Write the structure tokens for this entry.
Amino acid sequence: MMGNRRLARSIGDMGFFEFRRQLEYKAAMRGGEVVVADRFYASSKTCSACGNKLETLPLSVREWTCPACGAEHDRDVNAAINLKNLAVSSTVSACGEEGSGSARKRRVKPASAKQEVSFVAV
Ligand SMILES: [Zn+2]
């Protein structure tokens, strides 16, 4: 995201390091967990319905149709769904499978809508 001049300025102004630090601090305080997506994770151009990944998706394209399954996506909503699914799958694997016998299994609260926005920015 820092390669895009407009986004780089916005992210720089926001103080992204401080935002992440506070998010992790507050999540830990409330028993939550912050899942950070890899910086190259293609959240916008991966179809949330079938998993097909586009080669390119210019930032100017806000809506697109998956060539594999025909699903119509809003760029940001699709990215949010992909990141939510990534976070859920990370949380499940971090907690272990159900019935693992761990008496100290952590309880993880589902991320609120506000927290999901942070995943989009990563
Ligand atoms: Zn698809």
In short: Residues 97-122 have pLDDT under 50 and may be disordered. Strands lie at 63-65, 72-74. The chain is about 45% helix and 5% strand.
